[in-house]
Amino acid sequence: xxxxxxxxxxxxxxxxxxxxxxxxxxxxxxxxxxxxxxxxxxxxxxxxxxxxxxxxxxxxxxxxxxxxxxxxxxxxxxxxxxxxxxxxxxxxxxxxxxxxxxxxxxxxxxxxxxxxxxxxxxxxxxxxxxxxxxxxxxxxxxxxxxxxxxxxxxxxxxxxxxxxxxxxxxxxxxxxxxxxxxxxxxxxxxxxxxxxxxxxxxxxxxxxxxxxxxxxxxxxxxxxxxxxxxxxxxxxxxxxxxxxxxxxxxxxxxxxxxxxxxxxxxxxxxxxxxxxxxxxxxxxxxxxxxxxxxxxxxxxxxxxxxxxxxxxxxxxxxxxxxxxxxxxxxxxx
Length: 333
Ligand SMILES: Nc1ncnc2c1ncn2[C@@H]1O[C@H](COP(=O)(O)OP(=O)(O)O)[C@@H](O)[C@H]1O
Ligand SMILES: [Mg+2]
Known about the structure:
This protein is an alpha/beta fold. 35% of the residues lie in helices and 22% in strands. It has a single domain, classed as Rossmann fold (3-Layer(aba) Sandwich).
């Protein structure tokens, strides 16, 4: 029996991340649970500081154990990641899961050429011989829109522009065609043509290999084009989860409604981006027992100030909402 049919590719249960900061201990990710299947693209949206990056960094094992504590269960293809030692985890990273970061410099090594770095990943995780590896490096660079791949392969990270570095990092992440790709604002620094090309590349690899993709982006056009399902995060928690059609047509959390309403209309902007919504995200270091969106919510009631609702299934398949009044809120235009 095919394993991928019986269990999700990635399963995250009750993930909680706590960090020691100058303001004391904060928990930027609280009680986050979700899963993703092969052949699926899951989007994560939410304003800056809502814990999207910390969530995926925890999954990849990238948070320093010195200042962070990660609780909960993370399983990739049924295998618990937190039980692996750092060497085993490195094996996984690259072959079974890879990540594209917001900041490309953090994943490129300044002392090796770009070609060497992509080739090293291929050496570790694929059976390709030296000559085939060199060929594959050139193909990968071409696929991410680099015009002179042979010359670029011989260059060092500091010799190329930020946008080029971003593309090289994407080539590196795609080198071994990982089962799970996590992309944290992958195309923010790129112009529209290159962005389109990269997203098409991700989709074609997904169609060919069944790769699962988790994508964090502020760009709702990208979400609409790429994703089958979306998680909405607010102050470290998932406040809504829905399939893409339901999310855009019937959002039931007031925060999701505000996020979608704040996007400029298509006629005014080429890209529809999430913009500011009224009020600001409360501080993580101020303890509060009510709903974390209460202060900004147009529908707030006394109950919301006192008790934080749990994320619950509502009467629509696969639709979860963290709001006491989701059913009523959903009916308002
Ligand atoms: N290394 C760190 N030290 C202290 N605070 C951090 C650190 N990394 C993240 N945070 C805090 O955790 C919260 C979530 O951050 P992040 O996951 O990066 O948000 P985003 O949703 O924008 O990706 C923010 O309030 C951020 O300031
Ligand atoms: Mg982030």
